[in-house]
Every structure is written in C-alpha cells, then in structure tokens.
Batch of 2 targets.
Target 1
Amino acid sequence: MNIIELQDYKILLGEDIWTELAYLLEQRQYSRVLLLVDENTGRDCLPLFRANINLTAHVIEIPAGEQHKNIKTCQGIWQAMMDYETDRRSLLINLGGGVVGDMGGFCAATFKRGIDFIQFPTTLLAQVDASIGGKLGIDFNGIKNSVGLFSNPEAVFIYPPFLDTLPYRELRSGFAEIIKHALILDEKYWQTIQKADRLSPHGLTHLIQSSLHIKQHVVEEDPFEKNLRKVLNFGHTIGHAVESYALQTDTPLLHGEAIAVGMICEAWLSHKTFVLKQSELKAITDFILKIYGKPQLNPKSFEQLIALMRQDKKNEDAKINFTLLKSIGNAIVNQTCGADSILDSLAYYQGLEG
Amino acid sequence: MNIIELQDYKILLGEDIWTELAYLLEQRQYSRVLLLVDENTGRDCLPLFRANINLTAHVIEIPAGEQHKNIKTCQGIWQAMMDYETDRRSLLINLGGGVVGDMGGFCAATFKRGIDFIQFPTTLLAQVDASIGGKLGIDFNGIKNSVGLFSNPEAVFIYPPFLDTLPYRELRSGFAEIIKHALILDEKYWQTIQKADRLSPHGLTHLIQSSLHIKQHVVEEDPFEKNLRKVLNFGHTIGHAVESYALQTDTPLLHGEAIAVGMICEAWLSHKTFVLKQSELKAITDFILKIYGKPQLNPKSFEQLIALMRQDKKNEDAKINFTLLKSIGNAIVNQTCGADSILDSLAYYQGLEG
C-alpha cells in the first residue's frame, strides 16, 4: 500500500487498503455511516466494497451522470441524510466518480454545517484528480462547479481494482488529467506516458501514484487557488465550455474527452499567442488525437462556447483567463486571450485530420 | 465608533462607521459590489445606506421572512450573481436581518467556491447574534439552518440607526438573545437588563456592545461549536422547534419570540431535572412573560414539537441535546432530556398565566 500524507488527511492507494479503512472507522466511532453511490457504482463497486469490509451503512443512490450534478440531486441527498437521522458525528462515504465525490462532499460539508466524509473514487479521473484538493461542488445554471466550496475529506481511499469495472471510454477520460499533469509540470513524466501502451487498469497504478504526487505538490502549495494551483486549469477553460455545451446535446462528452479538446486548443493558444514551440504543439496534438480521436465540434456552437467561457469561475474583470504552456512541463497562469484568438484555436482543432 | 477585533475580521459599531466602509472598499478594489436586501430593508435601510456612502452596486432583492430562507431563494441569488457576471474578486454586502445575513453569506461562501462578503445587520437580532460567529445557512425540509457552513465575513458593520426602522415586535425579538447572553454567562449583565426600560433603539446601543463582547468571547474560544459555544444554544432546542412549527401555521412567531418560550421551558428543565433554584426559575419566567406576554401553544402540537427536536443539529446518537442553567449566569452544555420531561416543560409553560 502507498500512503501519501497531506497536511490534513491521507491518501491510501493499493489493494490492501481495507484494514486501514476498518481501523479508521474503529477509531472514530461514528454514530452512523452513509454510503453514497450512483446507479453504476451501486451495481459494480458496492458489491466489491461489501466483499472487502463488514460495515453497517445506509446506502443513498443517485442517478449516474454529470447532468445530475445539480441542486435538485443535492436536495435528494440532504433529504435522505435527514431521513436516516444523520447527526454531526455521522460519516458519509462517497463511492463513485467525480460527480459522486464532488456532490457528496458538498452535501456532507453543508449538512448541519458539515459532517465528516471519505472519498472513495472509483474512476481513473476521480482517482488522479477530483478526490484530492478539497474542491467540492455542483453545476448550476449549466455552468460547471459554479456552486461549491473547499473542504477536505477525512481520508481518500484508492482501490485500483475498481478500474476493472470501467468501460474503456471512462478510463481514457481519466487519462486526460494524467496527460495534463505531465504537460504542466513534468517533462520526464510526459516521456513516460508517451510510452504507455494501450491503457489498462493494471498498467495505470504507477501513473496514478505519480499524478497524485504532482497534484499533492500543487494543492499543498496553494490550497485556495490563489496562484500556483491555477496551473491545473490547463485545458479546462475551453474544455469546460466544450463539456457544458456537449452536455446539452445528444452527444455529451466525458470530462476528459472535453479536456482533451481543450488541451489541443489551449496548446495552440500557447503557440500562437505565446512561446510554445511548433514542434511541441505538434507532439501534443498528435498524442491526444491518437488516444481520443477527434470528437466533432459544431462551428455554429463557437459563439456559445465563448459565452460559456465568459462565465468561467477563473475569470476576473470579465476577461477570459487561461493557463498556457511555455514549453512541455512548464505552465504559466493568468494569461488572458481575446475572443478572436479563442475562435481561431477552435478553428485549428476543427481543421485537424481526426 | 467601537471596534471589536476578532481573529479574522472586525466588528465596527456606531453612527460613524461609513468612513471605515469606504476605506475597506478603497483598499480591496473589488471588481464589482452586490448588495443583498429583502423587500423591507430595500425600502427602509437601503436609502439610509445610500445616503451615507457613494457606491456603485448591483442590488439583489429577495422576499422578506424566514419562510423564504430556503434553497429556492438561494437559487435566485446565485442566478442574479451569475447575471451580474460576479467573479471571485467581487463582494456581496448583506443588508438585512438574520435571514439576509445567513442566506446571503451562504450564497457568497458557495458561489464559485467562495467570494468575499460583508455583514450589515439591520435588526437587533442580527446585530447581537447572527452577524457574528460565521454560522451561515438556510432552512431545509422545515428544519432550521440544517444546510449551511461556517465562514467568516470580511467585516461586520453595525449602524444603530437602522433599529429605528424596526417595528417594536422585531426589536423585542432581538432582545431575546440579549436575555440569553445574560442568563448563560453573566449574572451582572442579567441585573443590568432587568433595569432596562421599555426597549428603545437609543437605549440599546450599549447592550449591543456588551452582548457582542460575550458572543465574541464564546465564538473565539470555540469557533466550530465543539464545546463552549454550545452555551449559546440555551433556549434554542425547544425554541427552534416552536419556531419551525409556528412557521407552518397562520400565526408564525419571530425567532426571539420562540426563543423566549424556549428559555422558559428550558429554565424549567434546568430546575426540575437539574439544579437551577426555584427562585431563579421564577425570576426568569416573570421577566420573559413581562416582555413577551404568552404566545399560545397548541397542546396538539407537542408531539410534533418533539419530532422536530429530534431533527436538531445539536443531537448525537438520536438523543435530544440541551444547554441548561446551573444558575443565572452559569450554563452547562450537553445535557440530554427525555421526551416526558420535555412534554412536562411545555405543560409548565402552558399553565402559566400570560
């Protein structure tokens, strides 16, 4: 088992995490334990969870998917917590992907002004990204994560065999954050992931650990995203807009798929409006297209994408804020770009051969 | 002007607070300022506010009353914040009573994971109680403050002339928290408030200051209500239930009116199940009845009141938790009482001559 110690909590990673979980529960003597799952993790992960630990817990199940990461679902979770007479000495375990973790954490942190919660991420995306750093929240009015707060879990448990329950597309979605970690901070890591064979749960365990160390470094330096932490937003200004837009269509994209598009566009911005070399832009574009193919964007949507970007949390003074790349492994925060450049970057993506 | 310095922020009290507010705004250079009011403070306090400071601000108005302190109103506030392109460098000023402060603070603390807010309490209740201590939140499913969090404002500004805009009943409601502060922590203060003439805004300024000092002491010792802060819950276990119940009837009670009932009942519990002297029970009962009269409770509601108390945030292990009095000026936390004793305390109240 690998243990990453953060200032306020630990991340435990491995197949042998269960005795640690049992020990934590024994120590804390919670008055009751609630388990939040979605319909997928209720079916695929909960039996694995139950097979590994003997625990009396009330299960709350929510529908799966980003489109349910909203205040209505929160109301259902708070209601269930109330129905189970949840008190301040209760624990909520979030067993699921980013939606379950972000929304369950938000509901726990705001129920009776805050009860303990544990993150038990079951997707690659949540394991390398969402479960660490204390960002919690929901989408509001079509804008991703626009309502939420920072609050840390009691612990994060990462059990790699959960990845076996994922469709390949989900696994690939999570891999986008691994690519991002390499691009923004670690050129050697970029070389390592280039060599990654076809993504497989088994081969990913050491990458999860490397990515967690990168993310740990960033969030501990800057927990409330005043500065350094903004490097993690690379690919996310355009990516979030693409994701929000696609969510309202018949062909929604997974988070990482949208971020993959965002990383290509923002690498283009890094080259055209900044100093990223042409050769590095090409390497990034080729690698991402090789893994993700090329989801089509509708050119008619571009103006709407810009409007969505204007709503981004990261903006100040109504300018659109980006994290760009100086080179691979080297990011710079607080760059603003005008709508014209952004439209050009979307056109660049559009013109690629997928 | 009186300044109370807390660890993270200041409370400024007096008629000459406006230069301090102007200075703070000048210093912080917020990208935009939003002002939250309800229909009462929009009509009665906003003109006074505007007459004292020249400020460009977007006004968000919500309906007045505890019955609107819910997630639906929050959605309206978040939506308005979005419409005004509120970013993370924006400020929300909450100009109103406890509902505006608690709910506005909650919306600010969760919008884009938290923007700055200033509390500008306009009722006596909010000035002596709600505005200090960082408790934010809304009612959910009929249970008071069951969704919320702890977060501190940038500053609290208390301008006593706002009290002139209040009906007497509102002023009296706020006075209940002043009575509570005396009963739980300061026997001398209890003697002082006994001598208070008919409540008047002018005569209250020095009481506001004394009460703020008591509350400051308590919340700084124990910001997250692990122990000492629970003394502030005296009168609130039964009082909150009475308030929640009354809210659903044609004769809702103001917060302080319900807490006044709660303090009588819990003083009775302090005497019957604990050590409070008969003479002190009588003094408390007489003083409260003199000021508040005796709102009628419906005996048919008693079982429902018990059910509401079971939902109280303060409970652990499904027992009903109280703060009781050992003597006037001397409280003890974490006392549990059974349903029978609680019913008897309600019967005691019922039997009083109003």
Note: The longest helix of chain A spans residues 201-221.
Target 2
Amino acid sequence: GFATAAQSNKVTIGLIPADGIGREVIPAARQVLESLPKSEASPRFEFIHLDAGFEHFQKHGVALPDETLARLRGECQGALFGAVSSPSHKVAGYSSPIVALRKHLDLYANVRPVASVAGSGQKQLDMLIIRENTECLYIKQERIETDANGLKVAYADRKISEYASRRAGQMAFNMALMRDKLRANVPASERLWQGKPKVTIVHKSNVLSITDGLWRETVRGVKENNQALYSGVDMDEQLVDSMVYRMFREPEAFDVVVAPNLYGDIISDGAAALVGSLGLVPSANVGDNFVVGEPVHGSAPDIAGQQKANPIAAIRSAGLLLEHMGYSGDAARIYQAVDGVLREGLIKTPDLGGKSTTQEVTDAVCKRL
Amino acid sequence: GFATAAQSNKVTIGLIPADGIGREVIPAARQVLESLPKSEASPRFEFIHLDAGFEHFQKHGVALPDETLARLRGECQGALFGAVSSPSHKVAGYSSPIVALRKHLDLYANVRPVASVAGSGQKQLDMLIIRENTECLYIKQERIETDANGLKVAYADRKISEYASRRAGQMAFNMALMRDKLRANVPASERLWQGKPKVTIVHKSNVLSITDGLWRETVRGVKENNQALYSGVDMDEQLVDSMVYRMFREPEAFDVVVAPNLYGDIISDGAAALVGSLGLVPSANVGDNFVVGEPVHGSAPDIAGQQKANPIAAIRSAGLLLEHMGYSGDAARIYQAVDGVLREGLIKTPDLGGKSTTQEVTDAVCKRL
Ligand SMILES: CC(C)[C@H](C(=O)O)[C@@H](O)C(=O)O
Ligand SMILES: CC(C)[C@H](C(=O)O)[C@@H](O)C(=O)O
C-alpha cells in the first residue's frame, strides 16, 4: 500500500460507503473482516471512515474530497468502496468519484470474478474478468460543438495505450496462472474449469482497427514475448458483440477474460445475470501500490435503508481486497464462508428470492468463518 | 428507394451475399421472396447480384466496389446483405463493407426485432432494438502516436450528433406506435407485450456526460417536443451495463430499445442469445430512401458451404426489407410462415439442435407462405 504499515500485520482500511446501499453493505463487509479468526499470520485491522459520493457532492459540492484521497494515500493500505448514485442528467461540476479514484490511485486493473457456486444447481461458470481500468472512454475527454445548421455535435476521445494494455494483459495472464495453481487444491469433481488455463481477449478490431488493434496486439504480445512464463496459458479472442452472445450460450467456455474498460463494464454486468444477481459479484480495483474492493452493483436507491441489500458482493470484495494485499488464506476463508451460505440456500436477501435481511446474511457468513 | 420503379409494383433488389454463409442464406431469402403468392398488391421482384466482402477484397483489393454502390443507387429499391468475414488483425486498406454501405446510403437506423415465438415454450420476449447506424465509434476516425517513452498511444473519436440521435429517436417512437397498432390484431392471449408501448433509452451518461448526455437529451426531446404524437408512448432509460443485466433477468420488461451504435451492436447480439440462436435474428438498415436487410449473424466460416447455416435470420430480414419498403402484408406472410416452422419445431438447423439443412428449412418456410 501507499502507507507502509507501522507493524507488519496492522492493516488500515479506508471505508468509503458513498451512496445508497453502500451504507449497508460496507458495514457488513467490515463486520466480516472483524470476525475473521485471529492468527499470527492474519492482519489486525483498523478502519477509517471516508466520505465520497453523489450525496456528499450535493451537500458539499465535491464528490471525492481531497481529504479522502490524502488519507487513503497517507494512512491506508487498502479500501472498500460502496456504490455511487448517478444523477440521470448532467450536473455541473459532478463527476463519478469511483472513476476518479481509479485514476488518482492508478488502480489499473479491475478484477471481477464471476462464478457459480459448485453444487448450487446453477448454470456452471467460473470466469475472471480483467477490465482495464484507467482509459478507453473513461478518460472523459469530451467536447461539444454546433454545426452549420445550429445543431449540436459532441465528441469523446477513446484512448488505448500500449502501456495500459500491457499492464492489463499481464494481470490477465498472471491471474490465469494463479487460478490454475489454486485449482490444484480443489477436488477434480468440484472444479468448474477443467482445461488448461486460458485468456480470452475481447475487442472490436473489425471496426476499431487502430485502437482495438493496438489493444489486441499488445495483449497478445504479453504471451508471445514471454513464452517462458506463459506457454502454459492458452489464448483466444472474441469480438465484444460475440462475447456477450457466447457468454450467455456457453459461459463454461471462459476462464480469464480481458477487456478494455467499457467492454469490461458491460460484460461484467452481463456475467452477473448468469449467477442470479448483481448482489453476488465483487470486484477489486488493483494497482501496484493499492487495492480498492468494490461490489459491482450500484447504489440501488429503491431499496436503500431497508436492510434488503445483498451484502455478499461487498463481503466478497473484502475477500478480494485481502487476496490482492497478499492475505490469501484469510481471503479463502471469506470465499468459503460465503459459498457455504449460498450452497445451503436458506438465508438469502430478496434479490435471490429470499426474505433475509442484510444483517442476517452477514451474521450467517460470520458464523462460518 | 433511390431508383424509382418503372412500374409501381416492380421491385429490384440487390443481393450482396458477401462472405461465408452469406452465400447460402441470401439465396434462401431470395427463394422465399420468389415463393410469395402473387397478388395485385404484391411486388414483382427482380434480383441483381452484387459483389462485396473480405474475400472480394482479397481478390480485387476492394471490399465494397464502386459498381455495387452505383447499381444499388441506380437500379435498386432495396437490398439484402449476407455477412462479412473479419480479418483477425489489421489488413492495410481493408474496411468493413457493411459499415461503409450504411454510411454511403445514409441508412441511419438499424432495426433489430428479437422475439420469442409465442407457444414455443421459450423465455418470453418481444423487443425491438433501434440501433443508431451512422456514428458513435463507427465513424472510424482513429490515430496512433508514440509517447515520450516510445510506447504507442491510440485514439478513436466517438461522435454523437443531435441530428443522428433525433432520427434514431424518431424511428424508435414511430416503431413503438406502429407495434402497438399491429398488436391490436393479435389475440390478447398471444400478445407478449401487454402494456402501453414503451421506448427505453440506453446510454452511459454517468461517464459520458457530454456525448451520451446529448444522446439522452435528444431522444427524450423527441417525445417531450411532440406530445401530440407520442403522449401514448412511455419512456424510460437504462445505463448500458444495467441494460445487459436486466435484459437477461427480465427480457419481458422491454418493448422498443434505442441505443447508440456500439451499445446497439452489443445488446442485439446479447438479445439473440435469449431466443436461442443468432441464426434467428434479422435486421434492416433503414434510411429515408433505401433499406438493406441483413441477418445479425456473421459469416461463420467454420460452417460455411455445408448447408448447416440457419436461413431464418436472412429470411426474416427479407421480411423486414419488405415491411420497411411499405409491403407490410407480404412481410407478415413471411414472419408467420417462419413462426409456424419454429413453433412446429420439426425442421431446424444444428444451431437449434436439429439436423435439417439450410435448403430444408427454406423449403419448409416456402410451403407455409
Ligand atoms: C458507476 C460507474 C461509473 C461504474 C463504471 O462504469 O465503471 C460502475 O458501473 C462500475 O462498474 O463500477
Ligand atoms: C461486421 C460488423 C462490422 C458489424 C457491426 O459491428 O456493426 C456486425 O457486428 C453487425 O452487427 O452488423
């Protein structure tokens, strides 16, 4: 992390609930982290609350306060971000704080695992989406003009760089190897992905031959220029439109999927539909020096404050945070506790067809840690 | 059409099979058009074969010959386009002929109906996707530079204009009204969409506040500035990532969906997965003066030339072509014949789990006309 822990096992986590159900699921994730059994190797957590979000913007005129950034950099080794509300039309001066956070902390890869729970009777899949997290249309370079007929014409720049594409590609191939290693510990009958590890590159280079051409060539180059490391990883590719189609027809055909920012955003929401709820899908925004866990779902204003939100995406995001900070044992405990609750299928929030509250699901996970 | 028919009922259709299975499904669609029962009101078809595609490019150095464009403009009232192969990496001088065709003929709306067949036991949906067809990232303005470290950086322009957004929006609201009118003829028990007609606007204005902001405002304006015409049509909106999620969770929640070019491309492939096969989904590229029918699927080189291709997307595209040329009676005959074959479920190509050939499916449709 940016801030080096004073004592090696002390970990300071910034909690940024932001808007809506973020304020229910981030405390749930915190409770799970605090309930982890203490061992010599596991971290001792300190938490600090940090502000951000649309509501904060409405009150104070700023969506991501300087203080939040400064304290993340100065005091924290990682953070958990809840969810942010989007105003439905342009609000002068407002800009998404999570997009800004990714950029300011150089969190270049958004890691989004989407997997069915073995034995849950669901459609089987075990995908890891690596979404490039700093550029593409998210650079927010936009302009508007008026044409000769007095009509408006707007442009946005889409940026694809060799630098960012390579970092995202390396993350994809490294995670493919890592997943393969971890799978060795899973009984063969429970392994969803049986083959050689594989990275699928998503692009639209039949239309965007220069930008997506550069993306494609660079990610391919990660393997081609480092066969010693990656010869054990297969590589294929999908046009983004076909990817969405195939993901729904044969989700079991994918292992690691690597995509430019916007395609990754769309694909990960689509994949979430396959596992039954956006409320299950976590992510980690990963950089070389910092990690921010973040559920893939939004702020869900329609159910906020009613204890209806599914805390599992946030709880799993806390697991991803630990995993990418190097505490993979504690991360695995969290994943297994969540899988246990899901497999049992008794305690679930309304998005999964149940009647349990956010707190009840959180307690059930804690009991299994 | 650009070329006015000499005799009012004579219709000249340009056939552009292009690559791969395009060469099997376009003849199938032609056979269906030729098998339509002749009446006073129905058109007399003439067909002319026109070249285009990647294979044509490889032989002659041009993907969309001038002659094809000139004859479409000079002799045809409409066209059917098959599918085009995409080279997996950049080929100097090659550019997609279908994207060029849409632009040259000003085919500003890509109309993509995706519906389950009533009584087929499938997940029920009845969506019409209107995809803006001339701009967004499809303007192909791209450039590449080298940064201070000698690394490549590429940019693409994404264009959203008030002009194009309004035309797409008008098409969406007009089609919503049209569908509502046609539904009145369907027995209530067979109507998949029961409510007031609705247009859902897809965007990502939480990130692209200027370009997608302009898109959103302009499409909303179509209704807001013309309540006399459109007050009977509901309007809502979805962020593109949520749209893909919701489409898979509750496809029955959508009537007409209107999207910028690239989102529309992705959403329509996704919707195709819901009805069981890309081989079922047709489209029409519609302008004020010309229509090009085009199956949504690609050239499928893996099955080309083997009589395995599903001709239904192309046959339905011929129906859409007629519909948008004003021959809605003949179009309805085609749709009903196809639905009959699908509902019976006996004669189907391998993509639908059957063993029938392209020709057998085509013959079965013709028999029901
Ligand atoms: C809130 C929004 C800016 C964000 C994004 O598009 O990245 C969200 O959809 C996500 O996936 O984290
Ligand atoms: C072939 C390709 C350029 C095209 C597109 O992206 O528009 C295709 O996917 C489509 O949907 O018609």
Note: Chain A has a mean pLDDT of 94.
